[in-house]
């Protein structure tokens, strides 16, 4: 028997789920037909307006210690460990750069760096093996500016636009995945039925709901947290490592992309406004950029984008089962980092349910 699975939403989460599910089903010889729906399309040229499309691509659980709970370091480091095999599986290892993060502060903000180091020590319970000496290249680049930098050697970053495109290619190549450029109007979680915008109803054996903020009507406590990012081209600056700037009012990062392109982010505002980047945010981001390296003064701004991260009140992701549906949502600041882990957990849960012919009679949460 072929199991029919509907995946709703083709951001990073839905794409990862479709591809991971296909892989796990093949390994376990489960016959499966996966249908992936997104109102914005899935193909390599779909113009995506969703947080997945603007994300900087940091895979940085330790740097996030300043703004996140201990669970993120724990789950995030497991997710980080999956990335090398995940990009191998996508047949594009070059998407991943495992070059680490330098955490810096200006001399007047030294206190922030100490606080970060204390917080890391606390959440890591004294084990500071995530830190290593600053690479020689950075020591000379930072000379006279950032003398006390910390270096998180295990952290990595991924080129998100290329990742989404490669995933779209793999999805279109997969014989058992159909993608549909269609918004889903509603989902019946108990019966695994989706109703499309034109009123058509399609019944599946199981659903995986990855709609992010598009699922707000089913999650009253889901909210959007606005984030703004700038992308610049700076031929005079050469950094291969991520840089995180500690500051009393904001925590900013710089993520390198190929050909001297850098993504600078991100603001964090309790707002669901997806309107253009404000002058205040642009000024803050650009002055931080200039303060990291004066070589950025001649950089060209390629884009300024704003999106809203899907978040629950505790800012932790939620994977839950109910009826014939698995929902994954609330990936907040960490959806790119956590995507292979969330997809693996959801795919294994689904395979287990298929084996047991299970239906979940009450809602339960699955830890990452
Ligand atoms: C500025 C910024 C920077 C970020 N940087 C990073 C980073 O460096 N590292 C990191 O790990 N995370 C980062 N994030 C967070 C990350 O982007 C999110 O956690 C992640 O994108 C959430 O992915 P998702 O697939 O769950 O949701 P989304 O990206 O919102 O995708 C949901 C998809 O569902 C579709 N959809 C919605 N409703 C429907 C419907 N009714 N029918 C069909 N389809 C529907 C949408 O079109 C969309 O394509 C950043 C976020 C922002 C805003």
From TrEMBL:
Q: Indicate the segments forming the FAD dependent oxidoreductase domain, all copies.
A: 5-346
Reactions that this protein is recorded to catalyse: a D-alpha-amino acid + O2 + H2O = a 2-oxocarboxylate + H2O2 + NH4(+)
Judging by the UniProt lineage, the source's domain of life is Bacteria
Does the record bear Translocase in its keywords?
Answer: no
E.C. number: 1.4.3.3
Q: Which cofactor does it need?
A: FAD
Q: Which Pfam families match?
A: DAO
Swiss-Prot/TrEMBL keywords: FAD, Flavoprotein, Oxidoreductase
**Family, as annotated:** Belongs to the DAMOX/DASOX family.
- Recorded protein name is D-amino-acid oxidase
Q: Which organism is it from?
A: Fluctibacter corallii
User: What does the record give as the organism's lineage?
Assistant: Bacteria, Pseudomonadati, Pseudomonadota, Gammaproteobacteria, Alteromonadales
